[in-house]
Specification:
The structure holds 2 protein chains of 2 kinds. Chain A is of the alpha+beta class. Chain A has 4 helices and 10 strands, in the order E-E-E-E-H-E-H-E-E-H-E-E-E-H. Chain A has a 5-stranded mixed β-sheet with strand order 1-2-3-5-4. In chain A, helix 1 links the parallel strand 4 and strand 5. In chain B, the strands form 4 sheets. Chain B has a 5-stranded mixed β-barrel with strand order 8-9-10-12-11. A 4-stranded mixed β-sheet of chain B has the order 1-6-7-3, with no helix packed on it. In chain B, strands 2-5-4 form a 3-stranded antiparallel β-sheet, with no helix packed on it. Chain B has 3 domains: 45 residues, RNA polymerase II/Efflux pump adaptor protein, barrel-sandwich hybrid domain (OB fold (Dihydrolipoamide Acetyltransferase, E2P)), CATH 2.40.50; 78 residues, Nucleic acid-binding proteins (OB fold (Dihydrolipoamide Acetyltransferase, E2P)); 85 residues, K Homology domain, type 1 (Ribosomal Protein S8, Chain: A, domain 1, 2-Layer Sandwich), CATH 3.30.1370.10. Classes of the chains: A alpha+beta, B alpha+beta.
Chain lengths: 258, 243
């Protein structure tokens, strides 16, 4: 095992700067791309700090096995999976207890955003593949999965964005990475629908006083709003890029004519 | 009655489009007197209605639609047909035969076999029942030659054009027969493979540039140029032979 990730003595210095140079309420740099896979009906890719996650959506399509069909709505089936090479120590590719749990909470975070009642007896299959993990993958996974659903043309009430906030070394911080997550303190992942002002996922591990919790929640929701903006920009970018390429081609054609 | 976007602006799911008295049109929903988008698309509105033209979508069956299907399975009483919808469609054998089925005598695969393409019409469909097809109308039935291509169903209206102006133009320019399914499949039957190729080129061009205006003229121009090039090429090829 490589020892490149040595734990620094302090995660946050006296000037409130974190070990990776971020301020307390600063997120990691985020890069999002939509429509990256040709074979899926919808797909998206996110890089958040060192996290790298792919999401693919298939459907709505015929459900197999048939007994899983719901008479009144589409069944959202979600698989969160970490690649064996996504972490320092090889992770067995078999779904672990943690992955089963995350699949469930991600499904429940996304389901309220989808008009599943429009397509009864069908399945919407969602695959989230973590290629490289560095803390906060459930949040990044929800963000990217919501984009993949939108890219598949599935009608939605709102895009879901997610972000974690928490407490490290007695200070409240936004968007914890792996090291910060593993230190003592608290971690609160939040999934949020900004236009409807609805929280669809709220978990907490560690200890917070009720005042701290309130502050962390507000901080997290603020982080979600920032993510949401990036999400919408990425989704628009896919289509404006296509539009601009078209416009350029037309210009060239016209120039050629002249 | 405020509206928050301009016409033809790209909107994403959850974007607040308009408030108060507007009617929520395609790809939108209304809650507490506010209208939101449900799909990625181009915003548009008229006097009363606010709607979004989706950029990507999938086919949802509608009674009365003409669709182009592919046979998935031959069963005792009929065929299971893929129409690119979330639900598999059924075509009853009695419908194709125009009389009750005699399971001992009738050879269903000889009418439609697995993998065969058909032009059919949806006669029944609702939330509880899978779509039911018929082939008993003029222009419906098995596709025996030509090529099939697939495009996003939302762009089908653009391929048809106003009162069918776009298809009839492509038909005239290329001399191909074209059958359009509302489910995003298009069958092209031409006299020569070259004709079919130019028709496909035209449709691909429409698919790419569906959101731009003045498209019919540009497609016509492209097809004529294509034809011109071909005929000049033939002339060039013919010249050496003659000398």
């Amino acid at each position: 095992m490589k020892t490149s990730q040595k734990k620094p003595e302090k995660l946050i210095d006296e000037k409130d700067i974190r070990y990776d140079g971020r301020k307390l309420n600063e997120m990691r740099p985020v890069k999002i791309e939509v429509g990256v896979l040709a074979n899926a009906d919808g797909s998206a890719y996110i890089e958040q700090g060192k996290n790298r996650i792919l999401a693919a959506v298939y459907g709505p399509r015929e459900i197999h096995p048939k007994h899983q069909a719901l008479p009144d709505r589409a069944a959202l089936r979600c698989r969160y999976h970490m690649a064996p090479f996504s972490v320092q120590e090889r992770k067995s590719p078999a779904p672990s207890r943690r992955e089963h749990e995350l699949s469930k909470v991600i499904r429940e975070a996304l389901e309220p955003s989808i008009f599943t009642e429009y397509y009864p007896r069908t399945a919407i299959d969602l695959f989230i593949e973590v290629l490289q993990a560095d803390g906060g993958t459930r949040c990044a996974g929800i963000t990217v999965a919501s984009l993949a659903l939108a890219d598949a043309g599935i009608p939605m009430r709102d895009l879901v964005c997610a972000c974690a906030a928490g407490k490290v070394e007695d200070r409240l911080i936004l968007d914890l990475d792996d090291l910060e997550d593993k230190s003592e303190g608290a971690d609160v992942p939040i999934a949020y629908m900004p236009n409807m002002d609805v929280v669809t996922l709220l978990q907490m591990d560690g200890m917070l006083t009720s005042e701290e919790f309130e502050q962390v929640l507000n901080m997290g929701v603020e982080g979600c709003r920032q993510i949401s903006q990036l999400q919408r920009d990425a989704l628009r970018a896919k289509y404006t890029a296509a539009k601009e390429a078209e416009a350029e081609k037309e210009d060239e054609a016209e120039e050629a004519k002249e | 009655m405020p509206i928050f976007y301009e016409k033809r602006q790209i909107v994403t799911p959850g974007d607040l489009l308009a408030e108060d008295e507007y009617i929520s049109g395609e790809n939108t929903y209304k809650e507490n007197e506010k209208i939101f988008a449900t799909r990625v698309g181009l915003f548009d509105h008229d006097q009363k209605r606010v709607y979004v033209v989706a950029l990507k979508s999938f086919y949802v069956p509608m009674v009365g639609d003409t669709v182009i299907g592919k046979v998935l399975e031959v069963t005792f009483g009929g065929w299971v047909v893929d129409i690119r919808a979330p639900y598999p469609a059924m075509l009853r054998a009695s419908d194709a035969l125009e009389r009750p089925v005699r399971p001992q005598r009738d050879d269903l695969p000889s009418l439609f076999d697995v993998g065969d393409m058909m032009i059919a019409k949806i006669v029944a469909y609702d939330r509880t029942r899978d779509p039911l097809l018929t082939v008993l109308e003029r222009g419906l039935g098995k596709v025996t030659r030509g090529q099939t291509i697939e495009i996003t169903p939302t762009k089908i209206p653009r391929v048809i054009g106003k009162k069918g102006s776009m298809v009839s133009m492509i038909k005239n320019e290329t001399g191909c027969q074209i059958a359009i399914g509302q489910n995003g499949r298009i069958v092209i039957i031409g006299k020569t493979p070259d004709d079919e190729r130019s028709a496909i080129m035209a449709i691909r061009m429409i698919e790419r540039e569906a959101h731009t205006s003045g498209l019919t003229d540009r497609v016509t121009e492209m097809l004529r140029k294509e034809k011109g090039e071909k005929s000049t090429k033939e002339v060039v090829e013919n010249v050496p032979k003659e000398t």
